[in-house]
Structures are given as structure tokens and as C-alpha cells.
Amino acid sequence: MEDRCQLLREGGFTNFFISILIIVGILLSYMTQHYRIISRGSSEGISPYFVLLGVTSANAQFGNILSLPASRADVACCKEVSPFECVAGLLGIAQIGTQWVCFAIILVLFLVFFRRDDADIAEEELERDPDQPSWRTALIVGGVCLVHGLFVVIISAALAFGSPSYLGAWANILGVMAAALAAVQYIPQIWTTYKLKHAGSLSILMMTIQTPGGLLFAASLAARLGWAGWSSWGVYVLTAIMQGIVLTMAIRYEWPSHRRDSESHSPSTPPQRPPYTRRTTPRVLPSPGPYSAHLQAYGETQEEIEHALDRESVQGVGENQPLLAPGGIGSSGTR
Prior knowledge:
Number of helices: 14
Structural class: mainly alpha
Number of strands: 0
Low-confidence stretches: 327-335
């Protein structure tokens, strides 16, 4: 353990400030997602299975980092190092704990704002979601997440107080569980976003921050835990890749040009009549003409009346033009 305490003493300010920056980035990115759901008044567009896999993965990941021998050694070293070195050494645990809390808040908001009638959602977006999950599905997701979290806490606490020698194996089990859940976490969301053709309540800003931030987070954990902690930082590499796929899809669907093309090809949009160009040259009309004397019989709208007057104007020119005059209708052009 002395070697571990020495590593904490050598941590330095650079690693400390990078870790603080990561925590701030995690908070800001998830706050944009929380605000997105609250501002729209709905969790529409977020797959319940994405929430289920995300929360259970976060449960397992938090239990993993707390059960790792390196993390327990860092906690024990706080008795021998300075307060600053202790805080710096525990920032890795704080990072994962912050992410776990933020994703748990997404679960709460998903349930609170599930299918609100007063949601600020465009009608065309609602029409594209015929398979909206039921409230029963949302409650099942919330219940499973709660039971899974309690299961991880109870087993971890029992091993910590009863059989500490098994905590390392338990940490690896939780790490594999977190990695497996994270590997498939974004598959339901990718399918939901593809089917809806819009981002819904997913925050593009959150994914824009988290996709590169996840890789930076993984690098920070890898530098702290080494290859022995692969089960902790490897999950974030995989998550960042999958999140990048969802981000690419969301940007493509929300891009203005794509939305205009989608709306123009929508079968629900009625075909638009081309605009009528009003005549600017004076008409030559007999008075009264066959059309102008009975306009109500030839048209009801302004456009139909204009067409009738145009036809009468053309006929008026033909009737008033001398047949045999030079340039006339019946003239050959020679004398």
C-alpha cells in the first residue's frame, strides 16, 4: 500500500486540474440533457431501454470503482497523505459517482415527464412515433433500475465487511457487467432515433460534449488505474464510440436542409398549387364581352376570373384586327 500512497503524493497539480475539468464537463453535459427534457416537457424520443441499460451500467460501474483494490488503497492512504493529495487521489471515484448521479436524474426525469399532454412537441414529430412506449413499460424500467442498484450495494457491502478477499473478483464481475451493458446501451437509442428521424428530447449538445469527453475520461482513468483497471476505463471507450454514432444521426436528422427535404417528401403535405402570375399588360376587351358580362358564370375565385378575362382579351384582339389590312390576320403580307 505504501507504493500506492507514494503515487498519490506524486500526482501533481496537472492531473488534479484535469480531473476537476472532467467533473465539470460531466455536470455541464448532463445538465443540458436535464434542461432539454424539462424545457420540452416530455421525454419523447428517449428509448426506455436506453435509460434502463444506462442506469444499470452506471450502477455496475460505480460499484466496480468502489470495489477495486486500487480504489480501496487510495481511500486507506488518506490517513497518510495530505488532504490535497487525498482529494486528488479520490477524484477518479468522484468522476464515476457524478456520472452515476446524473444518469439517475435522467431516469427520474424520464418518468416525471413521460408523455405529458402539454409538452412542447411539434405535431409532425408526434405523428412519427406510433410505437411510443407505454407508462407500464416506463414503470418497469424504473423498478428494474432500483432493484439492480440495491442488489449491487447489498452484495458489495456484504463482501466488504464479510469477505474482503473476494472484492477484487466482484469488482471484475461488475466491470464486465458494466462493459456488456454499455456495449448494447446505445443500440435501442440508435434504433429509436433512426425510426423517429429526429432527436426528440435527446440533447445534441450533451452528446457533443460527452463523445470526446468520454475518450478523455477513459484516458484519465487509464493513467490512474493502469491496465489493471481496464474494466473501469474500457467501458468509457466503448460508450464514446456508440454515442458518436447517435450524435451523427441526430445532427443529420436535425440539419435544416434534411428537415426541409423530409417535409417536402412527406405524404401528409398536400400538393401546392403554383402561384398565378397577374397580367401586367392592358387588356383589349369588347364592352361588354362574352365573359365580362357574366363573370359569375365563369369563375368564383380571383384567379378564375383573371383567366376568363385573359381569354376574352385575346378574342377581343382577334375580332378588332382588320382581316385584309397590312399585317392583319387574313393578309398575306403583299399587295
